[in-house]
Each structure stands twice: as structure tokens, then as C-alpha cells.
Amino acid sequence: MKNNERWVIATILFVIAVLASIDIYNDYFEGVALWHISIEAIAGFVALAGVFYLVRGRFRLQHSLVREQQFSKVLQAEAEKWKQVSKKYVKGLSVEIENQLDCWGLTKAEKEITFLLLKGLSNKEIAEVRGTSAQTVRSQTNAIYSKSGLSGRSELSAFFLEDLLPPQKQETKLEG
């Protein structure tokens, strides 16, 4: 519910509670039946409870929003720190990948496609990025795999990325 809607509904409910109170006051002095006054009192209390619920919910949402904004700022700061720390390594990795692609004798277009493959793009996405057909990209990826001696996308990624990831720890079983 939008913030303004909460305030409008809370105001309407508050006005209802005030009007119900005035009516109860008048009814009491006019000698209206107690059951009638009781029903109006319940309606007034329900309206006040609605006001309380809406106002409390608004402040909870505001508090939650502030917490989420603070958390978002922390995450953004961490991301920026990571970018700064990893920048020189990423640049060095890019240079080394480029050197390997030169060793394989890839053309400029094949190098571009290799980098897009390493970023995880599909052949169709690569074709869209480069403004070519998917068939052209397929032919160029086949040339890349042929020149590199690799069998496909997985081996290409593994060739460059396998050593970057730490080995998985093997769980040791205790014999009892």
C-alpha cells in the first residue's frame, strides 16, 4: 500500500472514531439503549485500532527501508572495494588470455568471440552483440575449438579458469 494511501485511510478511520465518540456522548445523555451505545463504542475502537495498525505499519516499513538502504550501501562499498582490489588481477588475466589466443593464431573476430564465450554468452547472444548471424558465430566457434585443440565451450572455460578456483576439499571419513 502506498504511503499516502495509508495516511488517507488512517485519517478517515480517525474521523470515524471521533464522530463515533461524539455520537456516543450525545446518545448517552439522550438515554439511548446501552446495547446501541456499546455497538457504537466497538465501532469507534475498531476504527482507532485500524489507525494504530496503519500508523505502526508505516513506521515499521520506514524503519525497514532505512535498514535495507544501509545494507545496500554496505554491499555497494564491498563491491567497489572488490573491483578496486581485483582490477589489476583481472587486467593481468585478460592480457594472459589475449597472449594465449595469439599463440593459437586466432583472428581478431575469433578473439572477440572467445571473450564473449568466456563471459557465458550463448551463440545467439554473441550474434546479436556482434551483429552477425548465429551460423557465422557457430562457424567461428568451431574454428576457435579447432585452432585451440579444445573440444568445446566447457574445455575452453576450464582451460583459462580451472586454476583460478581452489580445489574442493575432500571430506574425510572416520573409520570407527
Structure report:
The protein has 176 residues and is mostly helical. The chain has a domain of 74 residues. It has 6 helices and no strands.
Supply database-style keywords:
about 180 residues, mainly alpha, 6 helices, about 0% strand
Residue ranges: pLDDT <50 for 5 or more in a row? none
Rg:
34 Å
Sheet having the most strands? none
Range of helix content: over 70%
Q: SS-based structural class? A: mainly alpha
Count of individual helical segments: 6
Give average pLDDT, whole number. 89
Strand content: under 5%
Give the helices and strands as they follow along the chain: HHHHHH
Topology overview:
Blueprint: H1 3-30, H2 34-104, H3 108-118, H4 123-130, H5 134-148, H6 153-161
Helix pairs in contact: 1-2, 3-5, 4-5
Task: Give a short synopsis of this structure.
The chain has six helices and no strands. The protein is 81% helix and 0% strand. The relative contact order is 0.06.
